[in-house]
UniProtKB/TrEMBL annotation:
Biological process according to GO: biotin biosynthetic process; gamma-aminobutyric acid metabolic process
MF-aspect GO terms: adenosylmethionine-8-amino-7-oxononanoate transaminase activity; pyridoxal phosphate binding
Gene3D superfamilies according to UniProt: Aspartate Aminotransferase, domain 1, Type I PLP-dependent aspartate aminotransferase-like (Major domain)
Protein name: Aminotransferase
NCBIfam families: PRK06105.1
Annotated InterPro entries: Aminotrans_3, Aminotrans_3_PPA_site, PyrdxlP-dep_Trfase, PyrdxlP-dep_Trfase_major, PyrdxlP-dep_Trfase_small
Pfam families: Aminotran_3 (PF00202)
Keywords recorded for this protein, A-Z: Aminotransferase, Pyridoxal phosphate, Transferase
Length: 450
């Protein structure tokens, strides 16, 4: 209870947080003892806690605040739309301007030959929706047995029942009775961690593709509907695939007529140094899932963008049944859609994708220069997302006995220096706003080295 936080005044925000609020992704009993960190305001790449202490938000919140914490144009876009039409929806043939404009923008800017966009409110909902679309399509094509989905170890696709089932991280399954059946698991492209002795990156990528093919053949190709993947795995540890990984995986999928779903929730809108992760890795997806940076996370919105291979059969099936029985009250919310359109406009106008590439290179070079530090096992990254894997024993690639303890300790020390990173077990991740300057990147590097 509140009085368990040694320093908190009764009725302070800290004490009331402990009393009334159950946090996501938090050890709830530990929170009773140490209390929350309360963020009060933001400006540029900085956030300030409720005692006025500044922090560089080197994770852009949750990999998401592309434009930093004080973009007035987004505030204006929201206020203008809220005054004109604060809510409308897309059920039963209704629509509105911001939703139409955003659908057109996404379909035309996404790589591949996309056909239509469907709107959701979070990355998890986008994943659930895509899963339902894939199943609906298989039924539409008269292939009711083609339903299994392949996802990877270390994948993160969200926390709703279906998305958490696709996720390949133990914490999202333990005590939740997940995953659902029908989801097959294949290895992640984590070369540094999973390579065999003497194996090159190229050989490792070939092995992953061969394992995928074995899995497909063992299960029966006609039972498998789709392969799910983040171009770069984010929450699973910023796992950057070997250069030829995606090419090899796609060749297997094409051979067995399996759809490819690219979860671009982190990678999308500039993070990897190109507008989409699919462009960075030559991925030709059938479905793309977009969220987070789409609106700089000023408001919740996400989208499923799909090609005609997916959309055509779904439209036919909706005609047969009488409706596509799926949709969210707030899907494509006009205020969120207006903010998303303005976010994308700003990313394009200011060429923030190029800034992500340039500042990302500076960040990765600076981190790579710490490779000889005794605690640094691997530095990895692409564009403006990077991670440093911390180890105690460089040869054995191991940290402390309890996984995550070293990462948490270093990340806490970094926070005490005024930089918010993110510990993912023993890797510390960096994913700052796309607007970051060279001086701000250097400040992150200096504080991390300290
Ligand atoms: N997909 C990816 C790749 C993500 O990184 C996340 C969240 O971090 C999600 C899906 C889930 O998004 P949300 O938390 O908005 O449900």
């Amino acid at each position: 209870m509140a009085d368990q936080i040694p320093t908190a005044e009764p009725n302070s925000p800290e004490a009331r947080d402990v009393r009334y609020h159950l946090h996501g992704y938090t050890n709830a009993r530990l929170n009773e003892q140490i209390g929350p960190m309360i963020i009060d305001r933001g400006e540029g790449v900085y956030v300030y806690d409720n005692e006025g202490r500044p922090y560089i938000e080197a994770m852009a919140g949750l990999w998401s605040v592309a434009l930093g914490f004080s973009e007035e144009r987004l505030v204006e876009a929201a206020a203008t739309q809220m005054r004109r039409l604060p809510f409308y929806h897309s059920f039963t043939h209704k629509s509105h301007g911001p939703m139409i404009d955003l659908a057109e923008k996404l379909v035309t800017m996404c790589p591949g030959n996309m056909s239509k966009a469907f709107f959701t409110n979070s990355g998890s909902e986008a994943n659930d929706t895509a899963m339902k679309m894939v199943w609906y399509r298989s039924n539409a094509l008269g292939k009711p047995e083609k339903k299994k989905l392949i996802a990877r170890q270390r994948a993160y696709h969200g926390v709703t029942i279906a998305a958490a089932s696709l996720t390949g991280l133990p914490a999202n399954h333990l005590s939740f009775d997940l995953p659902l059946s029908g989801i097959l698991r294949t290895g992640s492209p984590h070369y540094w961690r999973d390579m065999l002795p003497g194996e090159t990156e190229e050989q490792f990528a070939s092995r992953r593709a061969a394992e995928l093919e074995e899995l497909i053949l063992a299960e029966g190709p006609d039972t498998i509907a789709a392969f799910w993947g983040e171009p770069v795995l984010g929450a699973g540890g910023v796992v950057v695939p070997p250069a030829t990984y995606w090419e090899k995986i796609q060749a297997v999928l094409a051979k067995y007529d399996i759809l490819l779903v690219a979860d671009e929730v982190i990678c999308g809108f500039g993070r990897t140094g190109k507008m989409f992760g699919c462009e960075t890795y030559g991925i030709k997806p059938d479905i793309m899932l977009l969220s987070k940076q789409i609106s700089s996370s000023y408001l919740p919105i996400s989208a499923v963008v799909a090609n005609e291979r997916v959309v055509g059969p779904i439209m036919d099936e909706s005609a047969r049944i009488g409706t596509f029985g799926h949709g969210f009250t707030a899907g494509g919310h006009p205020v969120a859609a207006a903010v998303a359109l303005e976010t994308i406009r700003i990313i394009e106008e200011r060429d923030l994708v190029a800034n992500a590439a340039e500042q990302g290179e500076r960040l990765r070079n600076g981190l790579a220069a710490m490779a000889d530090h005794p605690l640094v096992g691997e530095v990895r990254g692409v564009g403006l997302v990077a991670a440093v894997e911390l180890v105690i024993d460089k040869q054995a690639k191991t940290a402390l006995e309890k996984p995550g303890l070293l990462g948490a300790a270093v990340n806490k020390a970094l926070q005490d220096q005024g930089v918010i990173g993110r510990a993912m077990l023993d890797a510390v991740a960096f994913c700052p706003p796309l607007i970051i300057t060279a001086a701000e990147v250097d400040a992150i590097l200096t504080k991390f080295r300290a």
